[in-house]
Amino acid sequence: MDGLRGARMKTYRLNYGGYTRYCRRTSVSLKYDENGKLLNPLSLARSSLVGWGQWQSSKKITCSYGDLWSVSTAGHGGLILVTQKELPFEWSKTVDINYDFYVDGLNVKTYVYEFEEDCSWAVILYKDNVAFESYVKYWNSWREKSDEENRADLNKFIVDSLISWSPKILRDEHKNLALYDWKRRREDMIKTRDSEKSTCSKEYYNKQIKGAEQNIALLEVN
User: Fold this and answer.
1) What is the bridge-based pairing of β-strands 11-19 and 25-33?
2) CA 122 to chain CA mean position, Å
3) Residue 174, pLDDT score
4) CA atoms of 11 and 2, how far apart (whole Å)
5) Which H helix or E strand runs over 177?
6) What confidence score (pLDDT) does residue 25 get?
7) How far apart are CA 58 and CA 71, in angstroms?
8) Mean pLDDT in runs of 10 for the chain (222 residues)?
9) 212 and 182 Cβ atoms separated by less than 8 Å
10) C-alpha span between 202 and 19 (Å, rounded)
11) 168: DSSP letter
């Protein structure tokens, strides 16, 4: 029980267990207030249940969806979002908690979403302008450019990343660009495949071409 201005605020603790990325059992102690608000989101974000290992550095990014951190580890990194509301777009959850404290009828929901640094970091910044603007300031801490230059560079970097890795996330204004880019890539892959002599190389490019055609179909439908 924690004191608050002379009153007694009831808190709830949940020991949430699961597996690490290396299939080892682990758990984290979560603390909620009497309204079901998670009081220690950082503990969940830093736990071995999510992410890519022990944090070596981190930066809190302001986000309208919840608590967001940009993190790096010895081998990898990305963005980790801890939130109590599901995202308004399709993205897989790393942690999905829906738990009832039956004694008082309190239900708590908590989710963790990961956005890996190589292929999905741009998704959350593209979908949330608050996070985008916060990340621009993060860039400003080490780039010798103005806010406007950083904003333009980051926006282009994000769109280019989404075209390559998550084209279904793109808004209509960028889908034509993505469609053109993937058609160009497919033609380049076909030319490269036809110039290859080994069966192994041709099979490799056939797989790449199939992936490109799937993205083209997805963009044309949407």
Assistant:
1) antiparallel
2) 8
3) 87
4) 7
5) helix 172-195
6) 94
7) 4
8) 47 93 92 94 96 94 97 93 96 95 87 95 96 87 78 91 91 86 92 92 93 90 74
9) yes
10) 39
11) G
**Cα 218 from Cα 222, distance rounded (Å):** 6
Return the pLDDT at 221: 80
Q: Which residue has the tokens 């963790």?
A: 112
pLDDT value at residue 1: 27
**One-letter amino acid for residue 199 of the chain:** T
DSSP letter assigned to residue 118: T
Burial 67-92 (b: 16+ CB within 10 A, else e): bbbbbbbeeebbbbbbbbeebeeebe
pTM for this prediction? 0.84
5: left (phi over 0), alpha (psi -120 to 50) or beta: left
Report the chain's terminal Cα–Cα distance, integer Å. Answer: 52
Confidence at residue 121, expressed as pLDDT on a 0 to 100 scale: 95
Q: Where are the domains of the chain?
A: 2-169, 172-221
Query: Are the C-beta atoms of 170 and 159 separated by less than 8 Å?
Result: yes
Q: Which residue has the tokens 């999510």?
A: 50
In angstroms, rounded to a whole number, what is the distance separating the alpha carbons of residues 3 and 210?
A: 61
